[in-house]
Amino acid sequence: MKRITFYLDFVSPYAWLAFERLPDVLEGLSYSVAYKPVLLGALLHQHGNPGPAGIAPKREWTYRHVTWQGHALGIALHMPTCHPFNPLPLLRLSLACSDDGLINRFVAGTVLRHVWQGGHDALDAGRLAALADELAEQIRPGQDAGSERPKALLRANTEAAQAAGVFGVPAFEVDGKLFWGLDGLPMLRAYLEGDDWFAGPEGDARWAAPAMLASGLQKG
């Protein structure tokens, strides 16, 4: 059985779509998933990337396209009233349900649905309180979104993701290989199935080749 680490931030609509698609895409395979919340903004900042929401025309297109993707995939996706927003309260609340920085599928799905279904304000105080109530049985004794331990777990998760080369979410790590994005799911399945493209020394060389490819652009 392969173990997949699913890096996610609840602010990402693609994380929501990938969360919903993952069981269908990997149907019939033997695997387990560890859901690891990280701060997307820190990953983007590390590489000087403003993200789709940082470029006005791309922001509009991203929201239009992701809404269509939800429609095309049969996954309910409604943009929250404000986006992007600061996801820290949601990330920390999810990690109040964790001892080791990982959360289960129930917690991940509950928080993602809070953001991406209904078209509401993800940070509305009343809705956050209701979300905490919904997760009450999962929250560790003495913990909440404002506790120091969830904050420390989020920092550790994000730093580990940065060290592993995660540059965005959703990202999936298995056997030290990273697969990025909703459209990376078919490639992830191919790897888990043992596709010849990945096999042996030639497969290792294919995987490593992009890192060796010279850039034709001058820096500075």
Give an overview of the whole structure:
There is one protein chain. By secondary structure, the chain is of the alpha+beta class. The protein has one domain (2-212): Glutaredoxin (3-Layer(aba) Sandwich), CATH 3.40.30. It is 48% helix and 10% strand. A 4-stranded mixed β-sheet has the order 2-1-3-4, sandwiched between helices. α1 (13-25) packs parallel to α3 (56-73) and α1 packs across α5. The relative contact order is 0.18.
CATH topology: Glutaredoxin
Beta-sheet strand percentage? 5-15%
Q: Which regions are unreliable across 5 or more consecutive residues at pLDDT < 50?
A: none
Q: What is the CATH homologous superfamily assignment?
A: Glutaredoxin
Task: Work out the radius of gyration.
Answer: 18 Å
Q: Percent helix among the residues?
A: 40-55%
User: What is the CA–CA distance across the termini?
Assistant: 46 Å
Q: What class do helices, strands and sheet pairing give?
A: alpha+beta
Q: Which outline best applies?
A: globular
For the biggest β-sheet, the strand order reads 2-1-3-4
In total, the number of domains comes to 1
Order of helices and strands: EHEHHHHHHEEHH
Q: What is the average per-residue confidence, as pLDDT, rounded to a whole number?
A: 97
Largest sheet report: 4 strands, mixed
CATH architecture: 3-Layer(aba) Sandwich
